[in-house]
Each structure stands twice: as structure tokens, then as C-alpha cells.
Write a structure and sequence with these properties.
By secondary structure, this protein is of the alpha/beta class. Helix content is 30%, strand content 24%.
């Protein structure tokens, strides 16, 4: 079975629904479909079901630019975010264009017909869909498996071992001793949530500390602005304020890391018990924003530590035992449940293989044009959000730019658009980020260039100006 659309979007998560909404409102005469592997929309926000799952960016910037976030919480729970995404899909009619149960395995470009033929598995059977333009919005991590290194002696453990990406619905931690292995965004979310849900005690076991910064759960400025201006007029103002604040913190972190290190430490000390060993448990060896800075709403992690329902141990694992974990220091952590919050595995384009006129595309051999298109690959775009700010800030910029490109093609009767490779431009990593999941997959990712338009800064205000005002006739994009 084969059918055809003008634009085919892969993925019905935050990015894919945003992309489709942009098409619906800004290019309404274009036909499109959204292919979703799973049986439900929402992507990350439907997949992750662990206790306390929430945003790690404020919702006034994680929300779409074109549709205000109406919730009260700045750092919102996963269920509220999922509802926001699905409500957006319904409001713009995107939900009528989603085809569920479509696992995209490959996409082949034919230069003769100027079309993509996309192959998807549906109930175990192949189905082909052709499209003039292909847009990958499948994120960058593997939905089937998280990063799960083997832990010495784990087979001996008599309790429950679980990864947050696959949280069992029937897991009850009430009255249980829980150890959460990890120190990233998932770990700092899980620890206070499990403590509040009645665990006997929760221990965050980390090999090394992470920068953890408290943030007010509710944005006071947003409440005041809504009261004075109304919701729709207040939203862009609040969004601009939060963009400015997060950009300023990131820039200060890169230019004066010592200042930010002191500010974070001061905030930690203020919320922890007197005499707490802050430097052992909350003083990383790297600079702020070398890895993502973790935000905790109203300092909930520090409150759990202060009231004794949670603790932090900084050590390495020697081996699991039948009743818990023995550490390299000789200490033993008794545990009924161990949560391996050990990270993600990257998977580009949902694992689909791309080919152009019969030649398989190796993404690592390509250069990313404006961090959204691949050199030498026609009529193709992908959405990967920021690592140092809200994902959706970048997703909205990509969508706006893709719509500009599509409008140009339709107005001039062009059939193809492709970034022309430039061997004179130096290459750099696509993600200038030191997180473990990025390091593990850096060799698989496209490169970005050392100069525009092959290079896009991790700076939303700068990128917004560049992408909205730049000429499509930039000497790199070729329209035919």
C-alpha cells in the first residue's frame, strides 16, 4: 500500500506535533501526515511514567511560541505537559493526521521523481508512503532502551532492579528502602518524589556530583503579568523574561564559571542542614553547563535531605549483594529497590536508514546546515532541540525556517532543496556538550561547521535573529 503527502513528519511528540501545527496554521494548503511508532502521541511525555516525572526547563519556554502555557507551575509534571501537547494537536487539527503504529525503518530519495519513499512497519507488514519533503521529529534517544551498563554482581540482588525509562506500573515503593543510582535530571526528580510517596528511605548514589539549582515552582512574574495583561498578552513577555534569564545564566557560566559555581553553592548551603558536606556531594569537578544544570522546584531535593527522608552518597559500586550495594569505601547500602537512572542511548532519526539515489547516507559523513538539514540530502529536515535551554525554543525555530523553505519552493515551483557541501568549512561536533549520552554517540552524529550557516550557536536570541532574518539565497541552499 502506497499513498502520498506533501510533507511527512516522523514522530508525534513535542517536536512533531509542533511541526505539524506550524504547517496547519502557516501552510494550510500543504497535505501532511505524522507517523508515530507507538499507539499514543506525546513522545517523551507519554513514554516516561516514573514517579515525579516533570520538565527540567520552565514551561513558559518549553511551551510552544504560538500557544501559551496556561498552567501555574513553571516546572510542570509530565501529565500536565502531555495534556498540553495533546490539546495543541486537537486545537490545530493535527490529531486527525497522526497515523499510529507506524515504525519507520527506512527512507529512500529518488532524484528522478524528486520524492521520498518511506517504509514503515505496521502490524509486522511493510507499508510505503511517498512524500515531497521528509521531516524527522523523532528526538535523539532510543525509546526501546535506556543506557544501562552492567553493574558488578547485580544478578545476586534479591530486590527489584528497574530503569526509569521502563517503570513498572505495579511497582510500590511504600515502606521500601530505595537506592537511585545517578545524579542527573531523572535522579534528582525521583529522589524527592519517592521520599514523598512513602518510601522508608531514598538514597541517591552518585559517582560524582552535579550542579543542582533550586527554582521557584511557580513563576511570580508570570502570575502578576497575567493578572495585569491577560494570558495571551502576558505569555510572550514572560517567555522573553525567562529566555533572557536562562541565556544570561548560561553565558555567565561559560565566561565566569567561578561566579556561577559560588552562586550555586550558596543556594545549596542555604537549603541544607548546618554542617552538611556540600563540597563532597554538590560540588562537581567540571564547570557549570559543561553538562546540563539540574533544576529542582522549590528545592524539593534539599528538603528531602533536610527532613531525613533522603540522603546522598558519593562513592562507586564495588558489587551488588543479595540485600543491597557494597561500595568501594566498604559501606553497604541496604536496598529493596534499586533504580538505575544511568541515562539515555542516542538514536538518530529513530533508527531509520536514509538513502539518496541508492546510496546509504552515513550521518557522520554529513554536515548539518543550521543544525536542521544534512548536506547532500534533498528535501529533508530534522528537529533536535537545545541542550542548554528548552527543547521547544529550537523546535519552533526549525519549524519556522522549514515553512519558509517550503513556501519558497511552492511559490517558485521548485521541486528540490538541498544544502550543498562546502569542503572549505571546518567541522565541529554537532552538540558541544559533555554529557555521557552525547559522548557515547558523538561518532554517529552529523558535524556542524565552524562558521555560519553551517554553525548554529547554542544561543536562542542570536539564533532567532539569524534564522528569521537570514536570506534563503545564502550560497548554500540550492533550489531546483
Amino acid at each position: 500500500m502506497t499513498d502520498h503527502v506533501d510533507v511527512l513528519i516522523v514522530g508525534a511528540g513535542l517536536s512533531g506535533i509542533g511541526a505539524a501545527a506550524h504547517l496547519a496554521k502557516d501552510l494550510p494548503d500543504a497535505s501532511y501526515a505524522v507517523l508515530e511508532r507507538r499507539a499514543a502521541s506525546g513522545g517523551t511525555w507519554d513514554l516516561f511514567r516514573y514517579p515525579g516525572v516533570r520538565s527540567d526547563s520552565d514551561m513558559f519556554t518549553l511551551g510552544y511560541r504560538f500557544r501559551p502555557w496556561r498552567g501555574e507551575q513553571a516546572l510542570a509534571d509530565g501529565a500536565s505537559i502531555l495534556q498540553y501537547v495533546r490539546d495543541t494537536a486537537a486545537e490545530y487539527g493535527v490529531d486527525q493526521h497522526i497515523r499510529y503504529g507506524h515504525h519507520v525503518t527506512g527512507a529512500a530519495w529518488d532524484g528522478t521523481t524528486a520524492r521520498w519513499t518511506v517504509t514503515a512497519e505496521v502490524d509486522g507488514e511493510p507499508r510505503r508512503i511517498t512524500a515531497d519533503f521528509l521531516w524527522s521529529c523523532s528526538g535523539y534517544y532510543d525509546y526501546d532502551r535506556g543506557h544501562r551498563p552492567h553493574l558488578e554482581g547485580e544478578e545476586r540482588f534479591g530486590g527489584t532492579l528497574v530503569h526509569p525509562q521502563h517503570w513498572p506500573e505495579d511497582l510500590d515503593t511504600t515502606g521500601k528502602r530505595v537506592v537511585v543510582i545517578g545524579s542527573g535530571a531523572t535522579a534528582v526528580t525521583l529522589v524527592p518524589a519517592l521520599a514523598a510517596a512513602g518510601a522508608a528511605h531514598v538514597t541517591m548514589l552518585q559517582r560524582s556530583p552535579t550542579y543542582v539549582l533550586p527554582l521557584a515552582a511557580r513563576d511570580g512574574f508570570a502570575r502578576a503579568a497575567r493578572r495585569v495583561l491577560g494570558e495571551r498578552r502576558a505569555y510572550p513577555l514572560v517567555r522573553a523574561k525567562n529566555v533572557a534569564a536562562s541565556t544570561a545564566l548560561y553565558q555567565l557560566s561559560r565566561r565566569r564559571p567561578d561566579v556561577v559555581r559560588r552562586l550555586v553553592r550558596k543556594a545549596n548551603v542555604a537549603l541544607l542542614p548546618p554542617g552538611y558536606d556540600v563540597d563532597t556531594h554538590f560540588r562537581p569537578t567540571y564547570d557549570p553547563w559543561d553538562q546540563r544544570l539540574c533544576l529542582v522546584p522549590d528545592g524539593d531535593l534539599f528538603r528531602a535531605i533536610s527532613d531525613g527522608s533522603a540522603s546522598v552518597v558519593t562513592d562507586t559500586i564495588r558489587t551488588f549483594t543479595e540485600t543491597g550495594i557494597e561500595l568501594s569505601s566498604g559501606e553497604h547500602l541496604d536496598a529493596d529497590v534499586v533504580v538505575t537512572a544511568t541515562g539515555l542511548e542516542l538514536l538518530l532519526f529513530g533508527g531509520a536508514e536514509l538513502s539518496v539515489d541508492g546510496e546509504v547516507v552515513d550521518p557522520s559523513d554529513t554536515m548539518a546546515y543550521r543544525a536542521m538539514m544534512l548536506s547532500g540530502v534533498p528535501n529533508f529536515a530534522f528537529t533536535i532541540g537545545y541542550t542548554n535551554a528548552s527543547w521547544t525554543l529550537k523546535a519552533d525555530l526549525v519549524a519556522e525556517y522549514v515553512v519558509r523553505v517550503l513556501r519558497r519552493m511552492r511559490a517558485e515551483g521548485r521541486r528540490t532543496v538541498v544544502p550543498t557541501p562546502d569542503d572549505s568549512v571546518g567541522r565541529a561536533p554537532l552538540m558541544d556538550f559533555d554529557a555521557g549520552y552525547v559522548r557515547r554517540a558523538a561518532h554517529l552524529l552529523p558535524r556542524q561547521g565552524t562558521e555560519a550557516p553551517w554553525r548554529l550557536k547554542q544561543n536562542y536570541p542570536y539564533d532567532a535573529v539569524q534564522l528569521r532574518r537570514s536570506r534563503l539565497d545564502d550560497g548554500v541552499l540550492t533550489f531546483r
